[in-house]
Amino acid sequence: MNIDYNKEVGKLIKAYRKLRKLTLEELAKKIYKSKSTLSKYENGQIQIDIDNLYLIADALDIRVDKLLYNDDQILISDESKNVPKFFKNLTEFYSYMYDGRVNKVIRSKLNILSKIDNNKYRIMMYMNYKDEKTYQVCENTYFGFIEHFDAKTNINLTNKDTHMEKAIIQILASFLNSETKWSLWTGFSSRPMMPISTKMLISKKSIEIDRNFENILKISNEDIRLLKLYNMFAVT
């Protein structure tokens, strides 16, 4: 597959510019370029040298690697016996959880990257993006690894910008195939600052978010019953 890296980088620049609510003219002034030149950067018409890439990243208040296209995905073959059925041939999947702090669904996209061991792969998670076409433009980016076992799959993550924030996603019975799986997200909230656990839906495909879907993701009466029964938050 031929990838036009200039266009891919340009798309990311444009997405971050809009996220920062900057016009073409405003960002052009910050990087000491003409509006026409910046437009050509965003459309992939001219190549950006490394100095200007750092200048743009600084103007957008992001790390320069946020503007780099990532094509490190691999296809996990059916020959990989240690990969459970749910994850067979997946290079990417989605997660959804309901955030009561802001009263909305938080959606994330996860990319499976290079193989570390027979049952272990590197992974990237892009949390709370607005546009799937530029999902790398998101609130939080995590790196880590996904590890498969007989009874469950673990995803261990570290926040790329705040390394003290660690998270784990535990997915039960990933050897059974289905379109979605319930999992337990255990992580850290920065506002307010506290450790948290909540249920998270894992899906092979992107799901349209509506009121019914929101209700499915909310803590239910059955969740509360199990919490009181075990004195633990459980997802089954």
Automatic annotation (TrEMBL):
Superkingdom of this protein's organism: Bacteria
CDD domains reported for this sequence: HTH_XRE (cd00093)
InterPro entries for the chain: Cro/C1-type_HTH, Lambda_DNA-bd_dom_sf, TransReg_Diox_bact_type
Matching PROSITE patterns: HTH_CROC1
Any Pfam family: HTH_3
One term of GO molecular function: DNA-binding transcription factor activity
Domain HTH cro/C1-type intervals: 13-67
Transmembrane feature ranges: none
NADP among keywords: no
PANTHER family xrefs: HTH-TYPE TRANSCRIPTIONAL REGULATOR, METHYLPHOSPHONATE SYNTHASE
Protein name, as recorded: DNA-binding helix-turn-helix protein
Lineage, top ranks: Bacteria, Bacillati, Bacillota, Tissierellia, Tissierellales
